[in-house]
From TrEMBL:
An example Gene Ontology CC term for this record: cytosol
Biological processes per GO annotation: carbohydrate derivative metabolic process; cellular response to lipid; cellular response to oxygen-containing compound; generation of precursor metabolites and energy; glycerol metabolic process; nicotinamide nucleotide metabolic process; purine nucleotide metabolic process; response to bacterium
Organism: Cinara cedri
Record-given protein name: Sedoheptulokinase
Compartments, as annotated in UniProt: Cytoplasm
Amino acid sequence: MDFEKLILGIDVGTSSVKVSLLDSRTVKSVYAKSVLTKAKINNPSHEKGDEQDVIKIFKSTQECLELVPRHFMKEVKAIGVCGQMHGIVFWDERFIRHFWSGEFSIETKKIVSNLYTWQDARADKQFLAKLPRPHSHLKAHSGYGCNTIFWLQEYQPEILSNYNRCGTIQDLIVSAFCNLKTPVMSTQNAASWGYFDTTDCSWNIDLLQSAHFPVNLLPSVVQPGTNAGSLYNTIYDIAKGTVVDVALGDLQCSVMATLTSVKDAAVINISTSAQVAFVTNYIGQQHDGVEYFPYFDNSYLVVAASLNGGNVLDCFVKSVLGWVSDIGLIINEDELWNRLMNLSSDEEATSLVVNPIIFGERHNPTVFGSFVNITNSNMTLKELFSGFCKGLVQNLLKMMPREMLLEAGIQRIIGSGSVIPKNHIIKKEIENSFNLPLYVENTEDSAFGAALSAFKTNNFLFI
Ligand SMILES: Nc1ncnc2c1ncn2[C@@H]1O[C@H](COP(=O)(O)OP(=O)(O)O)[C@@H](O)[C@H]1O
Ligand SMILES: O=C(CO)[C@@H](O)[C@H](O)[C@H](O)[C@H](O)COP(=O)(O)O
């Protein structure tokens, strides 16, 4: 089939990079692909840290783009990028030159830091208590860019002195594509760093300055849908000069992708993390675990963002692999996933209750998971796995109760992210416990959402 005007969407997730190509005539996806990044750093600079290798993320992004058939790439007229929010990466402006020279050498490693992700827990309660209170309706938690800067400034100042730019990983990718000397950031990603006032769209400069925060590092902020620049040179047959929008949050893009026509739906997204979200026009009452993040066109997303999603199941799988190896047996990870996913579906019968909050939650960072009701007959692999799956959904329900959804006029749920389509236990538990009809979308939603946003904001290119 011939396609004339396509939009490329890229989502730089915590576990994988995904691309999606949107056809401007049908506003449908014509191609999607994902590649695991395997970027986790096993010995981060702090025991509670969570860091990723930025070069590996770039290489996986390149690998994913390389896989897209070139006849599609030739038709790309605009690019939208989104990715994991809250995290921060530092770089020296020379990094962008290395990107365009096509070589990531040992030297490159010295001019870009690791990505300090949203899962980074080094800024503990005591440390956070010493920081100024943000002038914003949003609190700032550990793993948020500004708090990571505060922490590094106090304990590892050499990190800050090595670099002169910073942004989220998706901001760095956009900077590289457009050869930007200084990064730009959307309100969506700025708000995810903390110390950003969404009502007047500005960093809390005075407050940060009085706390000796290096405000000169902060990127300038623009509205979602603004062009960040244009592609500096032709890559993968995408033409030089193709417009590139400022990077967005993956959460906002997953909602954008799924709520194009329906207004009465909430989105449950489960990938590495998990969220329940719906759109609103105003900032309402804040509850523990429910926050209001900037969406598009001055509206907000009401979000219950859990730190416990697919990462918990990943941990469960890794534990089982460890037990198996401890008793001298071998099974590979993919095969184990396969078996767990295909365990029989009569799992409702179990009396075992798992509270799988193994990573804590932002509103309760020191409370972790538990098992309840262990008997002499329910310690089977099947019941443990299904207990973890169901517990994840129960945790989301606790953070965003059904009543809250009904009060907001929500009548259905759209399931997005790669975990829900693959996991029948989670799917069923969402239907049973939220007790609303569930529609499951495809897995590259956020990449599609990023493309959709770029399509809307550059629509003059597609007339
Ligand atoms: N082989 C597998 N089968 C089923 N699920 C998997 C498998 N490998 C990973 N997962 C799940 O997918 C999650 C990551 O989903 P992904 O969409 O790649 O995340 P992200 O958007 O955060 O990059 C993991 O945390 C894990 O729960
Ligand atoms: O933490 C929040 C919002 O506060 C998440 O919704 C946000 O989307 C972050 O980007 C995720 O935690 C990372 O997304 P993913 O890689 O798990 O898809």
